[in-house]
Design brief:
Blueprint lengths: L3 H7 E12 L38 H13 L3 E2 L6 E4 L9 E4 L6 E9 L5 E13 L3 E5 L11 E5 L6 E7 L9 H19 L11 E11 L12 E6 L2 H20 L7 E6 L4 E7 L9 E2 L10 H9 L5 H12 L3 H9 L3 H9 L4 H19 L10 H12 L5 H12 L5 H8 L7 H14 L1 H8 L6 H11 L6 H12 L1
This protein binds zinc ion.
Amino acid sequence: MISYVEAIEHFEPVIGLEVHVELGTASKMFCGCATTFGAEPNSQVCPTCLGLPGSLPVMNGAAVESAIRIGLALGCDIAGWCRFARKNYFYPDMPKNFQTSQYDEPIAFEGATDVVLADGETVRIEIERAHMEEDTGKSLHVGGATGRIHGASHSLVDYNRAGIPLVEIVTKPVIGPDAQAPEVARAYVAHLRELLLALGVSDVRMEQGSLRCDANVSLRPRSGGPDQPLGTRTETKNVNSLRSVERAVRHEICRQAELLLAGGSVTLETRHWHEDTGVTTPGRSKEQAEDYRYFPEPDLVPVAPSPQWVDHLRQTLPEPPGERRARLAAQWGFSELEMRDTVGAGALELVESTVACGASPQSARKWWLAELSRRARAEGVELADLPVSPQQVAELQGLVDGGRVNDQLARQVLDGVLAGEGSPEQVVTDRGLEVVSDDGALTAAVDQAIADHPDVAAKVRDGKIAASGALIGAVMKQLRGQADAARVRELVLQRLT
Ligand SMILES: [Zn+2]
């Protein structure tokens, strides 16, 4: 495939992003079923979300409130009156054979949000609409090699997810960023995640599917000038990590460029992203709106939020992410780079909670961005999903600050906490990890080391202080690392100089 640089030389990419957010409401959009993730398949269903004859939907007020708050946070206008619509299509994971969604009357429309890139530059992303809808169930294709339907021997379906409230946020075509398009796509999704988390409307876990991104990509030849129409787009579905968003857009730009340069044309279609191979493959050809035979949902009343309610919700919006970051950076004394790294690592909330539990901002940052990030990468999980709480990290730092464990022992304490052995204090006790602070025991170990290494001791006595490192090492080994190296050095030098 051609390189990204070559693709960009010939074409200007235009992207559009559709993000589905699963709302964190206790019950579903149109029935009282629970929404707990990971429950036994088909245990959270009822006649309404199974689409059984005679069942009728009832709107979830908390979901409507969340949708309005999302719209407001994205600077959208809120519809004074709007309806749900039926989007008709057949798919086994959708028991009603239509999805209750919104079509030409979204709850929120015409907004914009400012996204900050890694280099500090701000890009304004215009929002076309944010509308309410319900999620589908989940199909599981069994017996094939890929988990896809092709090659499977049979399929199972779980309707627990059917009817969970979603908000779909759709951008207008994003034209300005040009070669930065993949990076902007990623930064936008990261920005949305931060915003939604601050709103408290969703747990926004991409790996569990509560935040899903579809990336539209099209290319325009540079030779055509700025006023030419947009090229034919493809829609890459359900890209489920921030890194994948960037990779998928980049790949799609290269793929389309190669196709166009060879004289071919881009097919309007959905595509699947393959995380392992880093390529997209064709899905179904893209339906047009008319294929869905949308019509207003006759079983639901229109949504007509009063201006007073909308105003009230506007006044209770959280601090916008950009302002919050600036405030925290000032409060914590973080440089711009430190702050950017913290946000980039998805550690802002974790550092904030750790500081709230008593750790200094710099030590909290160090734990989450160094040791814990390394472990999260090794485990292939998100930082927030490591089995250690900000409270425990603060406690661990407290042990270091109190001189009860050194850095090396602290990492062993962390091993124990991550292995589920309890609080840092508990692990220190159970594993016997506290540093030896009793000078009697330390002195005995120092004397032993001097006796074991008379030649080294002689060098130190002759003024070669640097040689004392070997003695300190011997003491630390003897005490299995459970000593404060600086104190050991003091004692060694006291003995020999
Ligand atoms: Zn139900």
